[in-house]
Automatic annotation (TrEMBL):
Protein name: Lipoprotein
Key words, A-Z: Signal
Domain of life: Bacteria
PROSITE patterns per the UniProt record, alphabetical: PROKAR_LIPOPROTEIN
Signal recorded as keyword: yes
Signal in keyword set: yes
Native source organism of the sequence: Rhodopseudomonas palustris
Lineage: Bacteria, Pseudomonadati, Pseudomonadota, Alphaproteobacteria, Hyphomicrobiales
Signal peptide: 1-24
Amino acid sequence: MLLNSKRLLALTIVALTLAGCASRNDAPTDLGDDDAFCRQNGVAAGSSDYVACRRDRDVQRSNSITRANRAQRNLGEYMMQNPSRP
């Protein structure tokens, strides 16, 4: 019975760890709704200012994803170059 409890706990921990990795490639949500952001400044949808606002938001999101990917890659490289030995 105790062995089954330990296995269940181990599987739960592994599942939670993998669930955190599953969302690694999702786009950052901290930028919010682009349409609402661009319209709150009184810009009409379809105007050149609206298009520029949406383009700027896309660039910000792309830069954010690039920074996150670079940080992940740097962490992986650091871990490969500096393994901890028990």
